[in-house]
Amino acid sequence: MSSTQEEFNTHSLSVELMNEVQQFLYREARLQDTEKFRDWLNMLTEDIHYWMPYRYQRYRKNEKEPTIYDQAYYNDKMEDLKKRILRTETGTCWSEDPATRAAHIVTNIEVELSSNPNEYQVYSLITVRRNMNEDEEHTMVGHRTDTLRRVGGELKLAKRKIILDQNIFMNKSLNVYL
Amino acid sequence: MATNNDFNNYIDTKKGWVDRRIFWDQEIYEQELKQIFAKSWQFVAHDSMLPNVNDFYTTYMGEDGVVVARQKDLSVKVFLNSCPHRGNKFCYADDGNTRSFTCNYHGWSFGIDGKLGALANEHVYDKGDIDKEKWGPRQARVDNYKGLIFATFDPEAPSLEEWLGDFRWYLDMMLDGDGSGTEFIGGGIKSYVNANWKFGVENFVGDAYHALWNHDSGLKAMNNGEGFGQAVTEGSYHASVNGHGWEFGTDGFADVIIMGRPKWTEYVQNVLKPQMKKRLGELRSTIYGSLASVSLFPNCSFLPGIQTFRVWLPRGPRKLELRTWTIVNKSMPDDIKQEINIGCMQTFNPAGVLEMDDGENWEGNTSVNKGYLTRQEKLHYGCGINRQIEHQELPGTIYAGQFNDANQRQFYQRWADLMNANNWDDVPTRYTPRYSGKPTV
Fold first, then answer.
1. Mutation choice for B interface testing from A37, A87, A137, A175 by most B CBs within 10 A
2. What is the ipTM of this complex?
3. Which one of B95, B191, B214 has the shortest CB-CB distance to A169?
4. C-alpha angle B115/B61/B140, rounded to 5°?
5. For residues B358 and B47, what is the distance between their CA atoms, to the nearest angstrom?
6. How near does any CA of chain B get to the CA of A151, in Å?
7. Hey, are the CB atoms on A83 and B360 less than 8 Å from each other?
8. CB atoms < 10 A from the CB of A132, how many?
């Protein structure tokens, strides 16, 4: 690490890998937008940790990082995500009928190699535009840090941490995955 | 009358209706800020949010921003978060630890006790320009019930003990089940709902009814695909004291199971319930964990067994800010606390599988009233209107059957009583106290 600039370990990153990661994230976004949640689950490893923690808003001198023992919007393993998806399949999920119209926009993708040749650290911004009912429109922006793992040749999402910009969550519900 | 309005004209607890305008009109809302929120004891923080000297937390009483701060002698002070110079907030953080607050505008600083201290460039003031003792932010009265910190800005308000009254008998199930006291999990998720604040409170004060239909999908998600089944009214009740309400069954486990964490269910069965039975007796150990919900007048709610704890802060007549926490007993092992943390969050926060369905309804309840004709229509609150009973063990106003609008009617009666009152002598006590001056454990 130089004193004025971060050094990025990108020299050995291939265009093919960048492309593969991008395509992975775009596919994931499309499956979310089209509510193909079971297909999305197939893109995750069995030991997935999907985490969107509470965000502290404190003075700089008091700043505090959330832990998994604090409150979180999502702090889910595979079995927990399956419960959420089961809810949308019951036929009695009234608030999802008519369906929410969501657009997951993935940008600012960065890929970092790790010491494990089968794992990559991927940063991205996720913007979800959600339109519901007559005219309700909500926008959410999250800063994502993902771990992607190659399992049997295929990329899978093994870990995701999402930091939301909002302090007070500005909407009545968070019915989308970021 | 505090205004020309008689607020008993907006409710009828005998016929069972409520006027929709109380969920919409700006003028009524302004009266609520004055008559309800400037007078009532309100939950402002839990002791565990301020463990150390100089810890602080910022919140609202009505729309009045306040700082809740732990003092050197471990007492708590609550004061307005507004600089008496030009009015700016002097604390912009949600919480933290500090010896003083300094206003960004001109640099007036305030101690953790709220007293005005040094001013930036103080030499511009001549001797006699300002009496610092007189120019601190207004201080509230503060009291504590078993870890919950309450405050009121009304020097004439009755004591907190009288305000809670016999409801303490019920509160002890949540706050004093095993004698170790309670604490909040770290965090405090906040969200906006475009709904009148009373819709959140009245839902928790008595609305077991909605759970069966509205939360069917959430319950199935958390309970291996099984729904609630039919409403059971036998052995279930509405209990109301001073507008506070607890609706509950005596099945013992429905709310615990809704959380979907088998280790928690096991803990409640094998550890917590036997302790509660010893400490609080058979009936209360049976009530805890049953299908239930609770609100404290005016705007604090919780779910025993699911362990969500929350306030509904008013943000105008058509918007509320929901703050949610997770409450656990101090004595619980760390792994049980984490099970509760996870299960509570999966069910009750903006992403929770039960919470997600509620906000949607309350926004609809509120927004329809923009229609002039729509808001002239009354809302029906007549369920179980003839089911009042006396119960040997249960204090307060008791109605049989938890699928009932009784607690909601009592909540709105208390609302009207306070809205109409010129002083506290005008506010009637509408139940027969059994525990005045007596402990409830």
1. A87
2. 0.94
3. B191
4. 35
5. 29
6. 28
7. no
8. 20
Q: What is the pLDDT along chain B (441 residues), one digit of tens a residue?
A: 456 789 999 999 999 999 999 999 999 999 999 999 999 999 999 999 999 999 999 999 999 999 999 999 999 999 999 999 999 999 999 999 999 999 999 999 999 999 999 999 999 999 999 999 999 999 999 999 999 999 999 999 999 999 999 999 999 999 999 999 999 999 999 999 999 999 999 999 999 999 999 999 999 999 988 888 788 889 999 999 999 999 999 999 999 999 999 999 999 999 999 999 999 999 999 999 999 999 999 999 999 999 999 999 999 999 999 999 999 999 999 999 999 999 999 999 999 999 999 999 999 999 999 999 999 999 999 999 999 999 999 999 999 999 999 999 999 999 999 999 999 999 999 999 999 999 999
Spatial distance between the Cα atoms of B436 and B430, rounded to a whole number of angstroms = 14
Residue A91 CA neighbour count, 13 Å, CB half: 2
Distance CA A164, CA B176 (A): 36
CB contact under 8 A, B186 and A70: yes
The H or E element containing residue B420 is helix B406-420
A67 shares contact with chain B (CB less than 8 Å):
yes
Beta-carbon separation of B346 and A90 below 8 A: no
Q: Which two tokens stand for residue A57?
A: 């808003």
CB within 8 Å: A54 and B363: no
Please tell me which of the candidates B220, B342, B357 has its beta carbon nearest to residue A86.
Answer: B220
